[in-house]
Amino acid sequence: MDSPEIAIAHLEERAKSNTKRIDEHDEQIKELQNTYKIMEKMDYRMGNVEKNISGINEKLDKHDKAIVEESTKTDKVKGMKWDKLIDYLFYAIVAFALFKLGLK
C-alpha cells in the first residue's frame, strides 16, 4: 500500500480541488442570486407596465365611445337637415305644379 505521506498528499490535493470547486460554485450561486434579483425587479416593472396599459386602454375605449356617440349625433342632425331640405323642395315643386295648373 501507499505510505501515509502519499495518502496525506492525495487528501490535500483532493481538499484543494474540492475547495476550488466550492469556490466556483459559490461564484455561480452569487451570479444566480443577482440574476434572480434582476428578474424580480423586471417582474415588478412589467406588472406596473401592464396596469398602466390597461388603464390607457380603458381611457381610449371611453374616448372611442364618446367619439362614436358624437359622430352619430352629428350624422342625425345632418340627416334631419337634408330631410327638411327635401321636404321644402317637394312642397315647392307641388306648389309650382299647382300654380301652373291654375290652382291657387
Please provide a written account of the structure.
With 104 residues, the protein is an all-alpha fold. The protein is built from 1 helix and no strands. The longest helix is centred in the middle third of the chain and has 98 residues. It is rod-shaped and about 145 Å long. The mean pLDDT is 89.
Write the layout of secondary structure elements.
Layout: H1 4-101
List how many beta strands DSSP finds: 0
Low-confidence sequence ranges:
none
Report the radius of gyration as a whole number of Å: 44 Å
- Describe the sheet with the most strands: none
Average pLDDT value? 89
H/I helix tally: 1
Strand content: under 5%
- Helical fraction equals over 70%
Structural class: mainly alpha
Terminal CA distance? 142 Å
Q: Tell me the overall shape.
A: rod-shaped
Q: What are the secondary-structure elements, in order, as H or E? A: H
Question: What would the keywords be for this entry?
Answer:
mainly alpha
Task: Sum this structure up briefly.
The protein is 94% helix and 0% strand. It is an all-alpha fold.
